[in-house]
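for the writeup, i need someone to sanity check this before i put it in the appendix. the sequnce is what the collaborator sent (i think, or maybe the updated version? ugh). structure was predicted straight from it, no edits. if anything looks off just tell me and ill rerun, i have time this weekend
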Amino acid sequence: MYGISTVGIGKTYGSFRAVDSLTFNVKSGDIFGLIGPNGAGKTTTMRMLCGTLSPTTGTAFIAGYDIAKENIRIKKIIGFLPESTGFYNWMSGEEYLYYFARLYDIEEPIARKKVRDLLDRVGLAGRAFAPVAYYSRGMKQRLALARSLINDPKILFLDEPTLGMDPRGQQEIQKMLSDLNLEDGVTIFLSTHALTDVSTFCNRIGILNHGKLIACGSLNDLRNLLNDSTSIFVRILRNQETASRLAHPPFKITIDNVTEDSVDMIISDENIELDEVIDWMRKQNLKFTELRQQKMNLDEIFFRLTKPSNDKDSTLITVNKSRSPQVGQSSSRL
């Protein structure tokens, strides 16, 4: 069963199409990451799925419930952490959470215990009685996350959940969310600009651009979409003969970085083996200090898929099989 299923869902404001006919599925128990540039439609999509914004076209189902017809049922089984959260600053953290627990008709003794447990879980037990007005940005984010969990949701929607947190806080929240998913089976729908977190935390990823879903799948699926094959990173020691020895390689080389002492290069020919690279470098008397296989990371995939059509990348210099580096270009760098 799908935790989330959308069919042509879209949102327009006059002539502006903020979200354009999205169709995708998120299985129950998945951690799904939705990424995209600013203005791509991520927050609008999340608000439609959570029932705080009505779609203009299409529909969606949350745990089998229609967002247009069964909104009340959906709100009972989801938690939602928006990017911008409002607070009652005169309340203490404990009062704030208890207020929302009662809105969900959680009985008082259970609500009191749940509030204490959640404050402890998000690291706010020591500030439970302090007014929210005195909380830092990161502390307020922790409180908002606790609020999204007050009803024991089956599906959790998170828009920039670690915004304003220090690295330790981010790590603690990620561990908590991972435990919720693994131990309680909570489906997580995450939107964030922290692509490293998405690549390590999410088992499926969707990429939005200009309101359209341009890619969706696992990290390997996205690599395959771009025909990415494993490349080889090599760092060699640099000397006066380096340029001439790299003049006619038997495979495609991209010079990635040049320092006074070393040259970093990427070998990206298909089906190239490490042994072949090592044999060639030995014949050329090139000494290497690092040699490893690597795959395209999510940052690279994101930039390639969302890159404007007129954006020309001139930062890398490629050494082709058929010609040596141009004078004043990569040869001068080496």
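The radius of gyration is 25 Å. Residues 2-217 form a domain with the Rossmann fold fold (CATH 3.40.50.300).
thx in advance!!
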